[in-house]
Amino acid sequence: MSERVIPLVDQRLTGRRATVPARHIAPTGLLGDALGRPLRDLRISVTDRCNFRCSYCMPKEVFDKDYPYLPHAALLSFEEITRVARQFVAHGVQKIRLTGGEPLLRKNIEILISQLAALRTMEGQPLDITLTTNGSLLARKARALRDAGLQRVTVSLDGLDDTVFRQMNDVDFPVAEVLRGIDAAREAGLGPIKVNMVVKRGTNDHEILPMARHFRGSGIVLRFIEYMDVGATNGWRMDEVLPSAQVVKRIAAELPLVQLEPSAPGETAERWGYAGADGAHDPNLGEIGVISSVTQAFCRDCNRARLSTEGKLYLCLFATEGWDLRSLVRGDLDDAGLAAAIAAIWQGRDDRYSELRSTLAPDTSGGARRVEMSYIGG
Ligand code: SF4
User: Fold this and answer.
1) 52 or 362, which is more confident
2) Helix (H) or strand (E) holding 199
3) Element (H or E) spanning 118, and its range?
4) What is the percent of the chain where pLDDT is above 90?
5) Atom in ligand 1 nearest the alpha carbon of residue 298
């Protein structure tokens, strides 16, 4: 095991100044970036804290008790988040995902959810509001989240074997508690529920089949995520990546699968349905998904923007810097000006890191400066 080098540039201290164009063009809901990709999906990180220390996201060696988490005053308030989200919706956003860190650690998050649930798309439709959680607090909060207007939830679970799971989350948290949270989410009427498993070759890949067997026919969509070189702290190595094609092959060897069509443009997961006796997809058996940022990049229709917990706009999960929107929000700029600033940033976007990853030399890939996933959400 090679010595883990942990260079860290504190992204939270840097940021590009967002400028406001002289002419404010009214939002049309059809904003495209430099590669013609629309803005449809906004991921909002509501905290940089988490109660897990997953090695691929928030390794304990870095995010220890002395780690300088953001002070509360630095975080966008719920009102500020909702104001910013309203401009994104005016530009075409239809889906909002709340992330972190662990979003359920943010006190009274139900208030934010009810504010976001009141927003409407340009066509007057409610937004698709979802949340990604490690499930540790879900059993306690599921009902309140549903009542506040949350529609669905994605739960991270990297194995069913308690020893493996505790090794992955590095805080000794039991699988049973996460499964209890998933049941509570279902009872509260949140759905469809998705479960995300990050697959790290040599650590938890032997859990792929037990997870597939467990969730097959349950109505819950299990997705396998390739281990990614996000941030600058997880010591990522290519030989610890198990390509999704091998994940599908392993499952199909026991549980036959048929490939399914994407359910929406810009969907990150490739869908595979469990086949029935006739070889066709049996919806009662359900489906899995694979998210292959390393071996099958999906940048060409990436319609996702990310807002960090203190108001920086990131245009890619692997970005090396963000745009400071908080200064605009806390200044005397009106909504039209804020919307115009966001439009100018998105129109200049040409990010496609995963497509370029293999062509980038280590010292030009921005490795040491890539933003931490725990700071902007997955
Ligand atoms: S690497 Fe960046 S541009 Fe490509 S899909 Fe991921 S977030 Fe989108």
Assistant:
1) 52
2) strand 194-199
3) none
4) 84
5) 5
Q: Between the CA of residue 273 and those of 130, 187, 215, 243, 276, what are the distances in Å? A: 23, 25, 13, 19, 9
Distances in Å between the alpha carbon of 60 and those of 54, 64, 227, 233, 370?
A: 8, 5, 18, 10, 18
Question: CA-to-CA distance for 124 and 368, rounded, in angstroms?
Answer: 43
Ligand 1 mean position to 26 CA, how many Å?
27
In the reported structure, the alpha carbon of residue 207 is separated from the centroid of ligand 1 by a whole-number distance in angstroms of 27
Among 37, 40, 228, 298, the mutation site with the greatest number of ligand 1 atoms within 8 A of its Cβ is 298
Ramachandran assignment for 348, one of left (phi > 0), alpha (psi -120 to 50 degrees), beta (any other): alpha
CA distance 374 to 58: 6
pLDDT of residue 19: 87
DSSP string, 230-273: -TTTS---GGGB--HHHHHHHHHHHS-EEE---SSTT--SEEEE
Q: Homologous superfamily of 11-193+301-376 in CATH?
A: Aldolase class I (3.20.20.70)
d(CA 357, CA 370): 13
Give the residue whose CA is nearest to atom 3 of ligand 1: 352
Mutate to test the pocket of ligand 1, among 293, 294, 357 (most ligand atoms within 8 A of CB): 293
3-state secondary structure 14-81: CCEECCCCCCCCCCCCCCECCCCCECCEEEEECCCCCCCCCCCCCCCCCCCCCCCCCCHHHCCCHHHH
Alpha-carbon distance 225 to 192, whole Å?
18
Q: How confident is the model at residue 115 (pLDDT cuts 50, 70, 90)?
A: very high
| Residue with token string 């066509």 | 123
Centre of ligand 1 from the C-alpha of residue 305, in Å: 10
Atom of ligand 1 nearest to the CA of 306: 7
Q: Which residues line ligand 1 (CB under 6 A)?
A: 293, 298-299, 302, 304, 316-318, 351-354
Residue 2 has pLDDT above 50, yes or no: no
Q: Which two tokens stand for residue 260?
A: 């399914």
d(CA 348, CA 35): 9
pTM summary value: 0.94
For 282, the token pair is 């049996």
pLDDT for 5 equals 47
What is the pLDDT, as a whole number, of residue 11?
A: 61
User: Which pair of tokens denotes residue 313?
Assistant: 């706009």
Average pLDDT along the chain: 93
